[in-house]
Amino acid sequence: MSIQGDRVGLETRVESILTQDNALKVLSSFSRGGESKAIAPISHQSSKGGYYYPEIAQAIGCEPGEEIRLLEWLSDLGYLSKEMFDQLDVCPFCLGANLRFRRLCPSCHSKQIARKDVVHHFRCGWTGLEEDAIEETILLCPKCHRQMRHFGIDYDRSSSYHCLSCNKIFTQPEEVFECNHCSRQVPKSETILIPTFIYRITPQGMDVAKKGSLSGITVCRGIIESPYNLYTLKHIEDRIEELVMRYHRYQAGFSIVMMRLKQFERLLSEKGLAKATQTVRIISSVLAGETRKLDLPGLYDDHTFIIVLPQTLQKGAQVFAKRLLNCIRNLPPAEYLKGITTAIAIATCPDDGIERAALIGALKNRLARAEALDGDSIICEN
Ligand SMILES: [Zn+2]
Ligand SMILES: [Zn+2]
Ligand SMILES: [Zn+2]
To answer: Which residues are CB-neighbours of 304 under 8 A, at least 6 positions away?
Structure first.
């Protein structure tokens, strides 16, 4: 995982909160109220997302807001149903909801601005602060030194802003949000809206709560990485083991492709987590469209994709990789995707190894070399 600090991983990490024990505590807390019991969020300042589910947080003894991952996971598994409750504006960099509205000087971005009355002298065209024209009890134009007598005939007055730092006068301040978590300034139009949900227990959830066991359910991870609709790494690794076994038995070869966006780290730091996640989602949907039913597209880490191609040797894998590059190049030109290039590595069983570790080793090595090259690049040999 290459994303550290308060930048949350792209939801590929299994949080320690997702345990069987916690899942059962939550489901039994729901089941006591029956299927009609709905649990809604309430707003909470110290929860980073700006809201939490007090009853659930209390049931599992976590910090406010940490329980949301667990509720989402139980809903992915089909034990809870959810319905939209509200939407919140959050910071696109850290997904924090504690945003403060600020007005800034559009020229120098200073926060030191004040609302002032501004006067316009029709005769000479002077426009400036009324306080600069006041002489004792009259208004005297600082430019032509004539008295401005009649409002609407000699002069006009309007309310504007004055920057104390650069002295500019303007009617429309720059409006931004300041994030109280990561301290970044976010233009008003660039916050992202995230929904909050009301959860209810489903009949399947009731069954689990009654049985008091999640046995038969993969507790650690499902097969699908839900935000991206890709297979989980665990599932991919298991399938590679199976293909390796099949090779040993029947000599049926297969290929694995690893792919990474070269400018991902830059995208993440310049455009924020939301845009980076959005990009991973876009590529995920390209993968879903370009793979056959028997192929296995998944995430290797935050931004490295892995695609297992059964019954495909090196030539076939190269054709696939080229088609993928083309699709990514021809994506609708989102501003933040400009200049993004792709590194692709291919390894084939048996040519590059007949064990999982050897194949993954070859892939990592080739991907690093592909990343060091300029532009889109595919490497399939040592
Ligand atoms: Zn004047
Ligand atoms: Zn200014
Ligand atoms: Zn932030």
So the answer is: 258, 259, 260, 367
